[in-house]
Amino acid sequence: MAPFKDEHILLIQPGSGTTLAQLGLPEAYTPAKHRFPTRMFPAEKPGEYEPHRIRKVTTKVPAPSTTSNEPPKEDVEMKDAANGATAEGNPAGQDASGNTEKTEEETVEETYYEEDVFSEEGAVYPIQDGRIVNREALFALLQHIYNLLSPPLHTPIVIVAQPIWSVEDRNEITRFVFEHLSAPAFSYVDAAFAAIYGLGVKDALVVDVGKTKADVTAVVDYQIQRRTRSASILGLGGDSMTDRLLELLGSKGFTREMCEQLKRSDITEILPPGTPLPASASQTAHQGAPPAAPATDSTGNPSAPTEGATENNGDNDEGVLDVAAIVSGNTLEYLANMEKDKSSNKKAGADPKQPKLPNSQKSTASFQFEEFVEIDDETAPGGAKRYKRNTREITVGVERFLAATPLEWARGLISRGILEDIAAQINYVINGVDASRRSDLWNSLAIVGAGSKVQGFTQALLAVCQEKFILAPSASFFTSEIPSTFSTPLPTGGTNTPAPMAQGQGQPGPMFHPAAHGVNPLLVAATHNNPGMPLAPGTPGMDPNIQQRSSGHVQAPNSVKTLKFPEYFSEFKDNGNRNAPGASSGPGSTSHGSHGHEEAIFLGAQIAAKIFFVVDQGQSKSFMSRTEYNELGPEGMREYAF
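^ Actin-like ATPase domain-containing protein, sequence as received from the core. Prediction below:
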């Protein structure tokens, strides 16, 4: 088989809300270049799907002229008029009496179809909660992506598989890729495995926070621990935070789209447990001031929707000259008045500019809400819908800090909040791993997924884990292994109990150290053990043949850390505004904006694809070729999927 090229590899990562796709591997790995909504719309023909909603539009148009459709008449021989009279006909459009005929213009109904790229009415979502619920719609989406990117024939395909996918789902996708997309080679890569490839580690606890669910997977020595894997845990995704914001702000006129954009904005932040809210929060609640009031200008009037334009305050006019006043010839007078105004403001005690407070200390903050508004266009043919983009500034109170709190109906019953629920799943998965590797996993958390992109999510989750499951360093030796030289603790005894001495020495044994008077002997054993010291053969409960050191590992963790993202992937740094008005860019368009560490899975998929098809070239059975598919069928994919 001819080697594959970097620019011919097609990567697809299906998700519940968005599907990432990219054709070709760049020299410097970047976030996905194309993003498609994971939805399809039923077509006119049953069983087929379209990427956008198709609307049937009926309009009336003038009827076509009947004269143009008549066949040409034969030539007629002209003869002289009788009696020398000239044949003069009536002018067109007049009858014999000379009156003008009044004819009504005939119209006919014409039907055509148009795409409505903004509507979600009637949409079919093939992936819900990570599960494939409609394979035909998913195959139509894959076909649409393939046709839009238009790859060459010699293009291998890599699909990032969700952990909840069944074996039958994987087999059917394999069949579709080879039989309908005619791929020369195909491979799966597990989402958790792609994450450790992107982070460049072999051990990690991968927490993938998606749209409506979360997956928690332990990877030890490149091996996925499937026995304790928690896949597709419902209610722990980004939508749960949107639902909470809608519950808090719905009574103030917020819609779900407004709450979704608020969640993605820079002003929404998840504070660690115990962090106090801004001081004016209680005052705002008692006064009943709506935190979602539109921004107002200096006159107190609500600001109208803008097209991205901004207005300058009077505070920002310092240093700006009035050109009209200078041109009019009053230059000296104008400059003198400016200096006079400056000095008068200083004498009046004008407040200097206050230092900028961090977001967590502001009781209110504003974000830009962007929406598409339907406009009435009478000139549009057949009543076709047209939209315009409107932007307005909305101010929100301390509700923006409560996105991770549990919903009112679920509080204390089935949920303690998204952070505590994820922390409980992390603890469950780690406890199912070998005891000697648990501490390594606690120090190797990889928190990925679009749901974790909310500001402060990772730090707050670490704080919850530290509070719930991590022991303080001062208490760690109480849970450490007791040195194996002591099998059973001995009673401290009274003053008449002789202390056995070490053989050949005049020092008491470690169990009878002078510091042990009135102290728990287990604590003395843990703090004063010296494995190199010879033991007294007559000491009860001690085996002189046992000379082992403590392994030193701790059963209960005493620290929790996240993995550091590689710095050399500059395109994946978190920078810029995360607010994606209008639910990001249009479907299938080139990706813009900030996409950082939460997309470590797609980064790892690029690295894995490079190794599979370019470096390894199938020697380790990392992908299935068409020849092997013809021999084994889709069931043989389990032997090749990495």
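The chain has a mean pLDDT of 76.
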